[in-house]
Structures are given as structure tokens and as C-alpha cells.
């Protein structure tokens, strides 16, 4: 298994995804542990000082005015984690929990948080052992960190609460013992350092960027299949036309659609002077403009993610000269904004795909295809209700595109009087990506059926390879049959990347 070294340089988004999805193990660089030890010496000095230091010898949030005596500070840290592990609702996906724990480990290993090396080692060991703390859906306002979710991770590190090991719900103490990890007894500053970061929302952003690359690549393919099935032209995707509006994402999508349509007998069949169609509908002709704008939005989101991955988010932080300074870097606004931003093109790309699907089902607009692609229209309904499913999902995606980050509910006795809601933005983006997967799967099913119905004309090599892959699990046109399993099979091809793998050689 691949190993990701934390503290040996900036983490990449691909490394976050690899650890989150269980494809890579974790270790901490020795130089990082040495830096952590040096910073901890500053915290120990401040812990002995008569002057109070926030997070070291005081309470937290609105209770920061109370100085805590040394003999009560272990109880302070323990109480912080227990009280803040106040999540509710369904369990969060294991990949999100692992991404969040990895990103908190990254910040701890930066040497700016003041934790002990043993605490860093313990968190790395939990990740490496595949122990996944149970984290609940609700509990983060995206400011002062993803508090309840990160507290659930810290609680497991203390040997308390519940975790999952290979999917099995297990007491944290038992899981740690089985993995040979000693539960952590938190010292000064450590409780706060474990929970005061934007790691949950950032982890979900890193995962979303990887998934959205795959989905936008898939949208280019399904759009090409629909253009071909609807007897559309490929001339509008020409490089010189796209260069007149030099957006990089648009150029890339247009090039991909051109490549997918290359060598298509169906496209060639209506290229002559007897073709009376002057312009295709926007959902066909403008696919590169919409898909490309989504790609450029994704590029901006990746820039923000990469900056965050280079950050050390905690409050207070321990600086190299030993100062412990409060700051506002835990505020999730930079991440929240792009999480919300991405939900907009997700909804729009899905909406365009649904319009192409509907066009293939309408005999008045499909240029010779049977109504709803039915084998016996009237007796059979074909893909009529599959488009309903698409429409329902697209409607939901529009609701999910409403930003969460414009909301703020003050908390902590008005000490935390403006919050980002970035965790909520991340959660709804994950649901939106699932919805886009479904929409593209239905377009894939419908376009493949339409291409089959163009026989004896055949699709091009790339689109034909997509149809051939689908036909391994989904039969071709015929009388009505149970469609839900076929949609699920198409979703699996989109989600796994198998559909792209089957067509990648044509690009």
C-alpha cells in the first residue's frame, strides 16, 4: 500500500483522496516530530507561567476569562472534548472522517499547535490502523473549526466513544487496544489543537474536486453521445471557433467532445449539402461553454484547496519565537465560498444533460427516433419516466445550489458572532455530486439506446466503446423492463470511472 508522509512537505489533494478512500497508509516525518517537540517546549514554559494564556491555562470561547490551575488542566482538556463531541444525525461517510483526521494530523505536524509528539504519533496510528471514529452529520458551524466532528475524532483518540473497524461498530477503547495504540491523556493546549480547524470542510472539498473532474469528463462523453444520437453537428466544436472565446475549460471540453465524435458514421451521414439543419439546440451546441465554465470554476476551487492544504489552522498558534497568539484563521469562509460556488455548475451541467435527454425522447425534436425510445409506443413507455427521475434530481440540485455560506447563526454567548456554515456547504455539495452522477447515468442510458436505434448507422469508435461497455450489464432496445436496476448499473459505470477508462484511448 502507498504511504503518505505527513510533515515532509505540503499535502496534495490526490494524497488526501488516497488516504481518505483507504488506498494509502500514513506516517509522520521525523523532522516534523522534532519541530513538534520544539514547539511543545514553549507551551510547557507558558503552562508554568503566572500569566494566563488562552488555550493553555484558561477556559475556552466565552469562558476564556477563567484561569485554570495546573492540577485541573487535564480535566479541562478532557471536558472540552467530551462536551464538544455533541454531534447528532446520521453517521458521516468514513472517507470524510479519514480525510478530516488526516488534515488535522497535517496541522498538528506543522509544529504550530503546541501538542506533544506522542499525540501526533497516536493520531497517525489511528489513521494507519483503519480506525474510523463515528462522526455525526450535524455539529459544525464552520467556525472555531469543525468542532463537533473533530471532537468525535479526538474522543476516539482518548479511547472513548464509538468507532468503526472494517465497518463494524466497536468501542474506541477496544479498537485502540487491538491496534496497539495507547489512549491519549490530553495535556495543556491539546484539546483545542485537536478540534480548532476547518479540516472537515476542506477534506470534503478535496474529495469533491476529484469526483467533479470525473463527472465533468463524463458529461463531455454523454454530451457527445447525445449530439451524435440527435444527428447534431460537430462543426461547432472546432478549435478555431472555441479560440474566439479563450476560456481554458471551454477549449478542453470542446476538444474532448470533438475527439469523442471523431470518425462517427452517424455524424458523417448528415454532413452533406442536403442537410437542412442550420443550428443545433443550445443544450447540444453550447455544451463546451457550460462544461468549460464548470471546469474553470473547479480550477478556482482547487486553488483555494491547495492554499488551505498549505495552511496550519489553529487558535491560538505557537509561533517559532515561542509566542502564543490568537487569530481568526479557523474561520471557514474561504472554503465555504468555493463549496457553495461548485454547487452552481453542478446543477447547471445536470440541467443541460436533462435537456438533451428530454430532446431524445420527444419525437417532434429527435429527428426520427420513436417516441420515448419505446419499442411499441403506447404499449411501452420507454425512457419516459427515467427523464422524470432526471428532472426530479435536477430540481433538487437547484435547491442545493442555494448557498449555505450566506447564513450565520451566532453562538457561544455572542463570542462567536459570525460563522461560515462551510460544513453545511460541503455536505450539500456531496449530495449534489451524487445527483449529477444519477443525471449523467440516465443520459448515458438514453443516448446509448438512441444510438442503437440509429442502426444500420453506427456510432463512432469512442461513443461506440461507451455503448459496448454499457451493454455488458444493460441490454439494448426492446420491450419495457424494470429500469431502476439499469439506472443503478449506469451509475456504477459513471461513479467507478470505468466509463471513462473505456474511452480514454480515443482522446
From TrEMBL:
It is an enzyme of class 4 (lyase). GO terms for biological process: L-histidine catabolic process to glutamate and formamide; L-histidine catabolic process to glutamate and formate. Its EC number is 4.3.1.3. Keywords: Histidine metabolism, Lyase. Its main location: cytoplasm. The keyword Lyase applies. The keyword Transmembrane does not apply. InterPro entries: Aromatic_Lyase, Fumarase/histidase_N, HutH, L-Aspartase-like, Phe/His_NH3-lyase_AS. Pathway: Amino-acid degradation; L-histidine degradation into L-glutamate; N-formimidoyl-L-glutamate from L-histidine: step 1/3. GO terms for cellular component: cytoplasm. This is Histidine ammonia-lyase.
Amino acid at each position: 500500500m502507498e504511504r503518505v508522509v505527513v510533515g515532509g512537505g505540503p499535502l496534495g489533494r490526490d494524497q488526501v483522496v488516497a488516504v481518505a478512500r483507504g488506498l494509502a497508509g500514513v506516517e509522520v516525518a521525523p523532522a516534523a516530530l522534532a519541530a513538534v517537540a520544539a514547539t511543545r517546549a514553549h507551551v510547557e514554559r507558558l503552562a508554568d507561567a503566572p500569566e494566563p494564556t488562552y488555550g493553555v491555562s484558561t477556559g475556552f470561547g466565552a469562558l476564556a476569562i477563567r484561569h485554570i490551575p495546573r492540577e485541573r488542566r487535564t480535566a479541562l482538556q478532557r471536558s472540552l472534548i467530551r462536551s464538544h463531541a455533541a454531534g447528532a444525525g446520521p453517521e458521516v461517510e468514513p472517507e470524510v472522517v479519514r480525510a478530516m483526521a488526516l488534515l488535522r494530523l497535517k496541522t498538528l505536524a506543522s509544529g504550530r499547535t503546541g501538542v506533544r509528539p506522542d499525540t501526533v504519533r497516536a493520531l497517525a496510528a489511528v489513521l494507519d490502523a483503519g480506525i474510523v471514529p463515528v462522526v455525526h452529520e450535524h455539529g459544525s458551524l464552520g467556525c472555531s473549526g469543525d468542532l463537533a466532528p473533530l471532537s468525535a475524532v479526538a474522543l476516539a483518540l482518548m479511547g472513548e466513544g464509538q468507532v468503526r473497524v472494517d465497518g463494524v461498530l466497536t468501542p474506541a477503547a477496544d479498537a485502540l487496544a487491538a491496534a496497539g495504540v495507547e489512549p491519549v491523556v490530553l495535556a495543556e493546549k491539546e484539546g483545542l489543537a485537536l478540534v480548532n480547524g476547518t479540516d472537515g470542510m476542506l477534506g470534503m472539498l478535496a474529495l469533491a474536486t476529484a469526483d467533479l473532474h470525473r463527472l465533468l469528463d463524463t458529461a463531455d462523453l454523454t454530451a457527445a453521445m447525445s449530439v451524435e444520437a440527435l444527428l447534431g453537428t460537430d462543426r461547432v466544436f472546432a478549435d478555431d471557433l472555441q479560440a474566439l472565446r479563450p476560456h481554458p475549460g471551454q477549449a478542453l471540453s470542446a476538444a474532448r467532445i470533438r475527439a469523442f465524435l471523431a470518425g462517427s458514421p452517424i455524424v458523417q451521414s448528415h454532413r452533406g449539402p442536403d442537410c437542412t439543419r442550420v443550428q443545433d439546440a443550445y443544450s447540444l451546441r453550447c455544451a463546451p461553454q457550460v462544461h468549460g465554465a464548470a471546469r474553470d470554476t473547479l480550477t478556482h476551487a482547487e486553488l483555494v484547496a491547495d492554499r488551505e492544504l498549505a495552511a496550519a489552522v489553529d487558535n491560538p498558534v505557537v509561533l517559532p519565537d515561542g509566542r502564543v497568539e490568537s487569530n481568526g484563521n479557523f474561520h471557514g469562509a474561504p472554503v465555504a465560498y468555493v463549496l457553495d460556488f461548485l454547487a452552481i455548475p453542478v446543477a447547471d451541467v445536470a440541467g443541460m444533460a436533462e435537456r438533451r435527454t428530454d430532446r431524445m425522447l420527444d419525437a417532434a425534436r429527435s429527428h426520427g427516433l420513436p417516441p420515448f425510445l419505446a419499442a411499441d409506443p403506447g404499449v411501452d413507455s420507454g425512457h419516459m419516466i427515467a427523464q422524470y427521475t432526471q428532472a426530479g434530481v435536477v430540481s433538487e440540485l437547484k435547491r442545493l445550489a442555494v448557498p449555505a455560506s450566506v447564513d450565520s447563526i451566532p453562538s457561544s454567548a455572542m463570542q462567536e458572532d459570525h460563522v461560515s456554515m462551510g460544513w453545511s456547504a460541503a455536505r450539500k455539495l456531496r449530495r449534489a455530486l451524487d445527483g449529477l452522477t444519477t443525471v449523467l447515468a440516465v443520459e448515458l442510458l438514453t443516448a446509448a439506446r438512441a444510438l442503437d436505434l440509429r442502426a444500420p448507422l453506427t456510432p463512432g469508435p469512442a461513443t461506440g466503446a461507451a455503448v459496448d461497455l454499457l451493454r455488458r450489464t444493460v441490454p439494448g432496445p426492446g420491450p419495457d423492463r424494470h429500469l431502476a436496476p439499469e439506472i443503478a448499473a449506469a451509475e456504477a459505470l459513471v461513479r467507478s470511472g470505468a466509463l471513462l477508462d473505456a474511452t480514454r484511448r480515443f482522446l
